[in-house]
Amino acid sequence: MLGLLPAAPFRHRHDREILALAIPTFFALVSEPLFLLTDAAVVGTLGTRALAGLGVAGQVLLTFVAVCVFLAYGTTAAVARRFGAGDTAGGVRDGVDGLWLAVLLGLAAIAAGWPMGPALVDLLGASPEVAPYAVTYLRVSLLSTPFLLIVMAGTGVLRGLQDARTPLVVAVATYAGNAALCAVFVLVLDWGIAGSAWATVIAQGAGAVWYVATIGRTARREGVSLLPSAAGLRASASAGFALFLRSVSMRVVALATTAVAARLGDEAIAAHQVSYNIWALLVFAMDAIAIAGQSIIGRYLGAGDVRGTRDATRRMVEWGVLSGLLFTVLVFVVLPWAPIPFTDDPQVRALIMATLVVVALLQPLSGVTMVLDGVLMGAGDQRYLAWASLWTMLAFLPCALLVPVFTGSTLWGLVGLWIAFAVWILARALTLGLRTRGTAWLVTGARRP
Predict the structure, then answer these.
(1) pLDDT means per 10 residues in the chain (449 residues)?
(2) What number of other Cβ atoms are within 10 A of residue 334's Cβ?
(3) Could you say which DSSP state residue 449 is in?
(4) Angle at the Cα of 422 (from 171 to 32), degrees rounded to 5?
(5) Residue 337 DSSP label
(6) In sequence order, which residues have a C-beta less than 8 Å from that of residue 342 and are 6 or more positions away?
(7) Cβ contact 128:93 at 8 Å
(8) How many C-beta atoms surround the C-beta of residue 42 within 10 A?
(9) CB 334 within 8 Å of CB 274
């Protein structure tokens, strides 16, 4: 693994373009879990059951967002290919249709999710004491889904056009506003867990308006209509279907870990929610390189530059490993103090610290996995990603579901669950690494057949 470390940081010929996209993307991505952790800290003042309810409802919402991630990732790859081939207007056209698809999917989510809320919370194993908090948070937060999906699609458009700065500004402003409103609604106005959810609705709505205005100006400059086209909507939905299957497989893994943790007890699910958010914070940080890879790889393949694609891929993997090693050290440094902002329950604190040891050791492997995933997304290799995600999910599920059977305590049960999660990350790294060593993913041109 040491052979993958950058020997001359910032001097490789691809470093400038990688860092120009990855650095602002890093701050944009890291702002989300940071402010989600702020929400968790605020909700944690309401007690362990409220914090556990936030964790359960959050997994339901994250599942929907994850299965719709093609709105961002698929759009980034498609627009970047068009941009690399010199067809900027065509890329913007794809982006506008992606925005309309986001609106339709968001409205469908509200219609389906509101009546199904209690059943979804029960499916994840929430106890009778935790369920009311989870249902309340879920139903209010569902109102933000059209806004959130617009933000995702808009982010994909701008990153495909090689603009990572605007998504950074919108993300920081949105999540800072969310955190501030959450504190006011929960701590000052005493709205309870619903206050945290309403903060999300308002903040995401503001972000959606910002993206629509920005992309609207770009569309007018390129002479692209803002009205939807039936063919464009069909193309956006069709292109995203494989990524949808990939995301479903990945969310099954996340939901399975949540369900198993919930069945280990209220303390376990509360601790798992905090550890999972910290893991997401670190992964999102490393995902900055992966998302830069989506833009860069799409542009190189659109321009027909296979050699540049290979060189940029190797360099981004090197940066992924280095980032992972740095985060491993960081987690161990902050480990004694990590649980303090979230809970004063000694058992929950002990569980958080134990699982964060596994989180720390996972980081270098996670860095490679995230980067290779982004590279193949940028190449438009969604079909392979879908099948690889399915098989790795099927390998993970028996390991996770057997944890409560073979562990005799809450502590070892939760640690065992995170070890099963680490096995899943390893399986993903192997399947992605084997693919990128070959040539089948290196398809050039403005559109991938």
Answers:
(1) 45 76 79 71 86 84 76 82 83 87 90 88 83 91 91 90 89 88 92 91 93 92 86 73 83 85 83 85 82 89 89 91 92 87 82 91 92 91 89 89 74 86 93 92 79
(2) 12
(3) -
(4) 10
(5) G
(6) 37, 40, 41, 44, 51, 274, 348, 352
(7) no
(8) 23
(9) no
